[in-house]
Design goal:
By secondary structure, this protein is of the alpha/beta class. It has helices spanning 30-42, 62-76, 91-103, 121-132, 145-148, 154-163, 178-187, 201-206, 221-232, 236-250, 258-268, 287-300; strands at residues 13-16, 48-50, 82-86, 108-111, 138-143, 167-172, 192-195, 211-214. The protein has an eight-stranded parallel sheet with strand order 1-8-7-6-5-4-3-2. Strand 7, helix 8 and strand 8 (211-214) form a beta-alpha-beta unit. It starts with 12 loop residues before the first strand and ends in a 7-residue tail after the last helix.
Length: 307
């Protein structure tokens, strides 16, 4: 399949980290997945990322990933890019995933460090280089030291950008808002910075972020896109008002059980179910009860946002 690689100008806006819907037999519901992706794009999302951490990508086979990429391209590929999350324990497997994503029609890659190995910068740089050089697709570097134990510093991201023309963006999930301005200080406009944690979006855009890899967008795309646009356009008072309503939900993305909780909120909003793949198990009380209280309270006063 022929692809048109993403360029630097394509990396902006709200990109859903789409969840992976599972049937009772643990198979993927590809029909629901495609309809869900199209629904979010219809509400203003600028790309679809699959299958990342929120999509339980580390628990899927390569064939399952291929099926998701193919379905996503069929559902939205004519309207927006599909970005494949590339994460594995070995560099060789990561390269295989990247090439498979290109063959399925993906236009971009979100590249993770090796899952299980916290290497030196020389090793980490080599890993990223091998993946980015494996295809011509536009790339986003995913920095999440909390989850993966590897912290790519702003100067290191800028170094990769100097060496790899197809590195266009950084998903910054360190939780340190100062990283946004630090990346821009060393890389200028060469790299688009994306907010990677939902409850930092307003602060991240104020610090110069051009995009948001979002979680709660899976159930609330109109609100997510509207919030990002208000923040981007400098409409601070309106953004603050919407943020106050949205923030209790966005915080569900910022805890270890974020996959459970986002799927719970998404199901409450009418899309999919809470089903997870082992080793994740269904939420138990009182965590589920507390989360449902937050979700139901927010749903009762959900703002009317038309697109």
């Amino acid at each position: 399949m022929t692809t048109s690689p993403m360029q630097r100008a394509d990396w902006n806006g709200v990109f859903p980290a789409i969840t992976t819907p599972l049937r009772a037999d643990d198979s993927i519901d590809l029909d629901l997945f495609g309809r869900h992706a199209a629904w979010m794009v219809q509400h203003g999302c600028a790309a679809v990322v699959t299958p990342g951490s929120l999509g339980e990508g580390g628990l899927l086979t390569l064939d399952e990933k291929r099926s998701l990429w193919t379905r996503a391209v069929e559902a939205v590929g004519a309207a927006v890019p599909v970005v494949a999350a590339v994460g594995a324990c070995s560099t060789r497997e990561s390269v295989e995933i990247a090439r498979a994503a290109e063959a399925c029609g993906c236009r971009g890659l979100m590249v993770l460090p090796p899952y299980a190995y916290r290497g030196t910068w020389r090793e980490t740089r080599t890993h990223f280089a091998c993946v980015m050089e494996a295809t011509p697709l536009g790339c986003m570097l995913y920095n999440n030291p909390i989850a993966y134990g590897t912290d790519v510093l702003p100067e290191q991201a800028a170094e990769l950008a100097r060496d790899h023309a197809n590195l266009h963006a950084v998903k910054e999930s360190s939780g340190d808002i100062r990283r946004m301005t630090a990346i821009r200080a060393v890389a200028g406009d060469r790299l688009a910075v994306f907010v990677g944690i939902d409850d930092m979006v307003l602060e991240g855009v104020a610090a110069g972020a051009e995009g948001w890899i979002a979680g709660l967008v899976n159930g609330f795309p109109s609100e997510s896109v509207r919030l990002f646009e208000l923040a981007r356009d400098g409409r601070a008072e309106e953004a603050e008002e919407l943020y106050r309503w949205f923030l209790p939900l966005l915080r569900l993305d910022a805890v270890p059980e974020f996959v459970h909780l986002v799927k719970l909120a998404q199901a409450r909003a009418g899309w999919g179910s809470e089903r997870l793949r082992l080793p994740r198990l269904p939420l138990e009380s009182p965590l589920r009860d507390r989360a449902m209280s937050v979700i139901d309270a927010s749903m009762k006063v959900r703002p009317a946002i038309a697109r």
